[in-house]
Amino acid sequence: MSHQRSATREGSVSRESAVAASAGLGAIAAVLGYLVTYVLVGSEVRASFAGNVPEWKGVAWYFYNAHLVEIEASGSLGGLGGTATIDFISQSEATRVALLYAVPPVVLLGIGALLARRLGARDLGEAALVGAPTAIGYALVLGIGAVVTESSAQGEFFGIIASGATGPDLGSAILLGGVLFPVVFATTGALIATVAGSR
To answer: Which of 142, 141, 114, 112 lies closest to 129, judged by CA?
Structure first.
């Protein structure tokens, strides 16, 4: 009886460790994807924003666009206001910028495959359980990033208050970029690695 309890305890610890490892690597995947984005578009961001927006924020906006997350620009002048969405990648003329759409899927496929190999996923069910929890860390990083990369300004001209803010849509950043992307691509990477390893 006690032998069964200890075996059950070991199994649950192993599963918890796998979830923790997946979540941690999900966060690392988000940071890695951002760094690759920085390498690809850092110079374009410097030229485009000309110091009006910190470079790291501008790069983050491209990174969110690579996840199909729209950047919202809102402004108001007096009592009038409006909101527009921006896709910096589609507006760019540089061909290397279009490569950004491949960055999140490729990074997540690689992370999923790495997790499946390191954690010893033996079948498709285990591969899915290893890949899907990457969304925990990935969503956390993208959610925090969406908040800290918002840029806002306010001023007063002749007694009329003008304000504006630009940043990723928080809901899309978490659900689309933070959850859907890793669940689809990291899990697919884990499944591919598991199938390839079983042959």
So the answer is: 112
Q: 11, exposed or middle or buried, with CB in 10 Å at 0-12, 13-18, 19+? A: exposed
Q: How far is CA 187 from the centre of its chain?
A: 15
* pLDDT per position as a tens digit, 155-190: 666 666 666 788 999 999 999 999 999 999 999 999
- For residue 116, how many other CB atoms are within 10 A of its CB? 27
145 half-sphere exposure, CB direction, 13 A CA radius: 29
What average pLDDT does range 98-112 have in this prediction?
96
Q: Which two tokens stand for residue 71?
A: 């950047």
Say how far residue 16 (Cα) sits from the centre of its chain.
Answer: 23
Q: Which two tokens stand for residue 121?
A: 């996923």
Backbone angles phi, psi at 70, to 5 degrees: -80, 150
Structural contact between residues 43 and 155, judged by C-beta atoms closer than 8 angstroms: no
Residue type (1 letter), 63: F
Q: Is the pTM of this model over 0.70?
A: yes
Strand 71-77 and strand 160-168: the pairing is antiparallel
